[in-house]
User: What shape does this take?
Amino acid sequence: MLEIKNLSKVFDLDNPDKKPAVDNVSFTVNKGEFLSILGPSGCGKTTLIRMIIGLEKPTTGSILKNGLDITNMPPSERGMGFVFQNYALFENMTVLQNVEYALKIKKETKKNSRDTALSMIKEVGLLNYVDVKPYRLSGGQQQRVAIARTLALKPDIILFDEPMSALDASTRLSLRKEIKQIQSTFNTSIIYITHDQEEAFSMSDKILVMDESVSVQIGSPEEIILKPVNQYIQDFVVDNLKYKIESLSKFYRFEK
Assistant: This one.
């Protein structure tokens, strides 16, 4: 469904010593696939996802969707949805108004905008909050509104930019299950940005691990765990996951 070919981004082209924010990254995403882009802060994850959605223009490389080159296409024409880290909700609007907003400004969706919005709000479990404004919602509830707003436009691909970084542990676990359920229900392809190894490995069909603007390894969770390509993958991914498991084993007895 989506093919990223040799994508690079340099923010200061006049400076020959400026390191690319994203350097020659390539990967594919299939229909209904969940791809996580995993890496530490500053490695280029967000710049990469902003190029895919159309908020940044690549310096070099191309983006193909179903064989069509969309590299220079505006975001509104790409058939993608973007869930921001900070929710990006309209504070003066209710939950229903937030979800319905984009539907009402499009001719083809305006007629059924309210029914569609209510259906998506129900999907994320917030029907009791349709008339509530965002400031009265928890962080997890606000993120569910953002997800419902994105789903309402029926995108082929949804991109998430670290959507759970500001949420508590129990809310993150709950949202993980809901996002996976949404993927299954709508057969939507998902690209998910995270710095959390556990999050990536618990949700993904495929993981792209980045470091310092480059793609270091891409594969299934099993492939990355069993066959790390270098010491960085071993340290950042494998050893970090082992440490979390060992920490838990001190407090829980696991039965065979």
Q: What stands out?
A: The first strand starts at residue 2 and ends at 9. Residues 42 and 212 are 7 Å apart (CA to CA). The chain has a mean pLDDT of 90. Residues 87-165 form one domain.
